[in-house]
Amino acid sequence: MELLEIQPRELKFTFELKKQSSCTVHLVNKSNEYVAFKVKTTSPKRYCVRPNTGIVLPRSTCDFTVTMQASRTAPPDMQLKDKFLIQSTIAPYGSADEDIVPSMFSKENGRYIDESKLRVVLVSPPHSPALQPINGALKQEPVNEAPLVKEAPIMKEAPCLKEAPIMKEAPFVKESPIMKETPVAKETLVRKDYTPLNEVHDLPISHVKDFEDLKVKVINLESKLNEADKTIVILREEKSFAIQERDKLQQEVALLRRRCAAKVQVGFPFLFVVFMALVGASLGYLLRQ
Fold first, then answer.
1. Residue 16, phi then psi, degrees to nearest 5
2. Higher pLDDT, 193 or 223
3. What are the tens digits of pLDDT across the range 142-179?
4. What residue stretches are annotated with the MSP domain (predicted)?
5. How many CB atoms within 10 Å of residue 86?
6. Are 112 and 191 in contact (CB under 8 A)?
7. Which of 77, 87, 99, 76 has its CA nearest to residue 41?
8. Which of 25, 33, 114, 287 holds its CA 20 to 30 A away from the CA of 18?
9. What is the structure's pLDDT at 203?
């Protein structure tokens, strides 16, 4: 079972004396699982891999770059026996790059580890002088260009040289005979604890309970959202009703003011006249007696 699709299957480096060369590898995860990968090489001092470990999310891709350090001499017949091994395994759901530990790629706990081997191929640069043997070693014919000598400091890049020891793992060198396995033997490996995510009924009891709890929480959240929507609608209706009542009260106050203004008359009020008449009659009666 192939967890990751790897492109290309060969690492092609454009070889030039005293120059670095890089190659990008494209990883494709077509499954619904989180897949962790790790890159190993038989020559950790010659290559730098960035990143050499990582997580490929479900239905997504990931790239890593392999950089070959600059060399002052060409290899015999422009061929290298260096090889790379890409290990991949199923990672827990939601894993990140910092969650990767060496035990994830150990076969001792019965985990399924998918392994893919890549070989290195050297390619001559286009429009470059041919490499010719001098004193038993291949050397490039001199070119009247000063920049070639000035580019030598590229070899002193500290980050790349410091990362090379991370790739050095003795178990890979010891397991080099495994690289002779035929594809048929490789495909017979089956992961024992692999379970597809879409088959909910085949999950362990603990996973089923977690799934049910999550489902209940989602339903509760939806009901609370519906209640909140209803409350918002009610508050909006009450607000509009209050605005209408305020407008009515303002209209009634304005009407009362108009009526009071219309009742105002010029002269003495009628009650005042009646009161004064009674007072006058009383005084006249007293004076007669």
1. -140, 140
2. 223
3. 433 333 333 333 333 334 333 333 444 434 434 444 44
4. 3-123
5. 18
6. yes
7. 87
8. 25
9. 56
Residues for the chain: how many in total?
289
Rounded distance, CA 63 to CA 52, Å?
10
C-alpha 44 chain-centroid distance = 30
CA angle 122, 181, 11 (to 5 degrees): 20
pLDDT surpassing 80 at residue 206: no
CA distance 124 to 16: 7
Which residues does 18 contact at the CB level (< 8 Å), separation at least 6? 70, 71, 72, 148, 149, 151, 152, 155
How many C-beta neighbours within 10 Å does residue 148 have?
A: 15
According to DSSP, the β-strands at 137-140 and 21-29 are unpaired
Q: Are 19 and 154 in contact (CB under 8 A)?
A: yes
Residue-wise DSSP of 21-34: EEEEEEEEE-SSSE
Residue-wise pLDDT tens digits, 56-84: 999 999 999 999 999 888 888 888 889 99
Strand locations in the chain, DSSP E? 5-7, 10-14, 21-29, 34-41, 47-50, 53-56, 60-68, 83-91, 114-123, 131-134, 137-140
Specify whether the CB–CB gap between 23 and 46 falls below 8 A: no
pTM score of the predicted model:
0.45
Strand partners, 120: 11
- Residue 135 CA: distances (Å) to CA of 16, 139, 236: 19, 9, 93
- Contact at 8 Å (CB) between 208 and 200? yes
Residue 85, strand partner residues:
40, 117
CB 5 within 8 A of CB 59: no
